[in-house]
Amino acid sequence: MAERTHDTIESGAPDPMPYMHPVMAKNYGKWVFHNHPKPGVLYHKAASGDEVWTVKAGTQRQMDHYTVRKLADIADQFADGYVRFTTRSNIEYMVTDGAKVEPLIKALTDNGFPVGGTANSVSMVAHTQGWLHCDIPGTDASGVVKALMDDLYHDFVNCEMPNRVKLSTSCCEINCGGQADIAIIVQHTKPPKINHDLVANVCERPSVVARCPVAAIRPALVNGKPSLEVDEKKCICCGACFPPCPPMQINDPENSKIAVWVGGKNSNARSRPTFHKLVASGLPNNAPRWPEVGAVVKKILDTYKADGRPWERMNDWIDRIGWPAFFEKTGLPFTKYHVDNWRGGRSSLNASAHIRF
Ligand code: SF4
Ligand code: SF4
């Protein structure tokens, strides 16, 4: 095997070994079994006899340095100074002495970090950047998550769901949050309004035309200046033209809404990966607490908790009971907007072979 080097690499995933707890590095690939002693705690036993307890706690993801220092102090005190963050912004502490597990849980909960998110609990919400980092959001994904997890605290620290529940929040329709059992995604309901004075200076018009999935954008001359026009009958309000051309303003406090999708799954454990499907649309984008979104998510979770069989993920449960029963049991209204089987996609989608960016 080639010698491992730790030179700085500016792209791709960094080498995790230098940052790994020494007992985990030593036993890498040599674990004999693992189990789940209680919510928020995983136990691993290695062939060498070494033991590791992993304690998982929820964080607010966007943290000031006081919070990061607090979490690091807890790591120094109980976990030999080693931590790792999961993709869902949980922090994990690895402990090699079983007697330290309960004091670590106490230190975390006393400092306001709930311990949970393992096995059949509701995990933390994977969320996209929101207003702080990205330049195109129609809502603040991080804010939605904070409001939602305040409501779902009980289901994070307890394992009462039929199986794991993964949630995600995405602040535009590009949905870089990915698939989830329940996904909360911005939904634009009006075509973009074009600021024609800026288009010629700011936008590369051919790339904007190529970006539209339904070929609704055409070059146009407006007031003698090169600009663009949108065929509003074709436009599906996806927002894809806004990132390469900000003068095509689509975010709007009234008409940018929030939709809820269910049944997505990335893994192929027990059943194949699936795409989530729309179940509630047109919910108000109501910062700072998004109560209407929270009510819909809670309704879906409560129904799944009561009706799902052990080990059924959200998509398995819906497959078993069928979509009519899903809408009946959750009480969510089924409307014409829920029906789209893309049978007309050949003629309505942009199927040309030219390169898009
Ligand atoms: S979901 Fe959209 S707006 Fe939010 S971070 Fe991803 S690309 Fe940016
Ligand atoms: S890219 Fe999307 S929002 Fe923009 S014109 Fe095309 S369909 Fe409408």
TrEMBL record:
Q: Which GO terms describe its molecular function?
A: 4 iron, 4 sulfur cluster binding; dissimilatory sulfite reductase (NADH) activity; electron transfer activity; heme binding; metal ion binding; sulfite reductase (ferredoxin) activity; sulfite reductase activity
Alphabetized InterPro entries for the sequence: 4Fe4S_Fe-S-bd, 4Fe4S_Fe_S_CS, DsrB, NiRdtase/SiRdtase_haem-b_fer, Nit/Sulf_reduc_fer-like_dom_sf, NO2/SO3_Rdtase_4Fe4S_dom, NO2/SO3_Rdtase_4Fe4S_prot, NO2/SO3_Rdtase_4Fe4S_sf
GO biological process terms held by the UniProt record:
sulfate assimilation
Could you tell me the superkingdom of the organism this chain comes from? Bacteria
This protein's GO cellular component annotations are:
sulfite reductase complex (NADPH)
* Record key words, sorted: 4Fe-4S, Iron, Iron-sulfur, Metal-binding, Oxidoreductase
Its cofactor is: siroheme; [4Fe-4S] cluster
Instruction: Look at the named UniProt entry and state the broad enzyme category this protein falls under.
Output: oxidoreductase
Does Iron count among this protein's keywords? yes
Pfam families membership:
NIR_SIR, NIR_SIR_ferr
Could you tell me the EC number(s) of this protein?
A: 1.8.99.5
The 4Fe-4S ferredoxin-type domain covers 226-255
Q: How is this protein named in the record?
A: Dissimilatory-type sulfite reductase subunit beta
Recorded source organism is: Parasulfuritortus cantonensis
